[in-house]
Amino acid sequence: MSQINEILEHNQAFVENKEYETFISGKFPEKKVVVLTCMDTRLTELLPRAMNLRNGDAKILKTAGAVISSPFGSIMRSILVALYELQAEEVIVVGHYECGMASLNAEHIMGKMRDRGVTEEVLTTLDHSGVNLAQWFKGVENETQGVMHSVNMISKHPLMPPGVPVHGMLIDPKTGQLELVSDGYERLKGHETDSPASV
Predict the structure, then answer these.
(1) Are residues 93 and 64 in the same domain?
(2) What three-state secondary structure class fits 80?
(3) Rg of the Cα atoms in the chain
(4) What's the CA gap between 82 and 61, in Å, rounded?
(5) Same structural domain, 67 and 134
(6) Contact in structure between 162 and 196 (CB atoms under 8 Å)
(7) Is residue 75 located within the same domain as residue 166?
(8) H or E stretch including 63?
(9) Which helix (H) or strand (E) holds 100?
(10) SS3 96
(11) Chain centroid offset of residue 170 CA
């Protein structure tokens, strides 16, 4: 049986048995927080449990390494929508130890693209169109640097509402232990007189 058929078969039983009832919640986050984290499979259930987040408590966004690659991409847009439209009041960026983004090699991944059928012509065309694939696929120096990159990108964004705390954390993907890397409340205190920064 294919993966998709297994999913659909399970889903039919899930709905018929009304297993969804334990997950019913509203669309606004009860804890008024938006969490940006990594897409690492180890965090799927671990991170919400480690942060005491249940269904309906938070808006959770996932991207490779919890790294925002563009100030005007879909991740930043989602954060802004959560803050302006969905009653979120704080942002928490949660990276993790042993993150693949800390060892990502752009040339290596582009080599895999070639191996799987992406032609040199496509790569060259993108390069001449201003898409710097080597930069786009570049990893981060380390997990802390990746978290701080995103914290700074969010907190200094020109469309961020003033006074929103943006925190940075690292989680151990084995134990779920959290480490505070950047306290958003302290950052706000230290920058109360600063003028808005541009990205």
Answers:
(1) yes
(2) helix
(3) 19
(4) 10
(5) no
(6) yes
(7) yes
(8) strand 58-63
(9) none
(10) strand
(11) 12
Indicate if 52 and 115 belong to the same structural domain.
no
Does 91 share its domain with 122? no
Query: Is 35 within a domain?
Result: yes
Is residue 190 predicted with pLDDT exceeding 60? yes
Is residue 40 domain-shared with residue 87, that is, in the same domain?
A: yes
Structural domain span for residue 130: 105-138
C-alpha distances in Å from residue 178, one per residue of 43, 126, 183: 12, 39, 13
Q: Which of 10-14, 104-108, 160-164 has the lowest mean pLDDT?
A: 104-108
Among 55, 128, 144, 56, residue whose Cα is nearest residue 96? 144
pLDDT in tens, 114-125: 999 999 999 999
Q: What is the mean pLDDT of residues 179-184?
A: 97
Q: What percent of the chain has pLDDT over 70?
A: 95
What are residue 68's phi and psi, to 5 degrees?
-85, 120
Place of tokens 């984290």: 37
Give the type of residue at 139: G
The CA-CA-CA angle for residues 150, 151, 153, to 5°, reads: 60
Report the amino acid identity of residue 161: P
How long, in residues, is the chain? 199
22/50 Cα distance (integer angstroms): 19
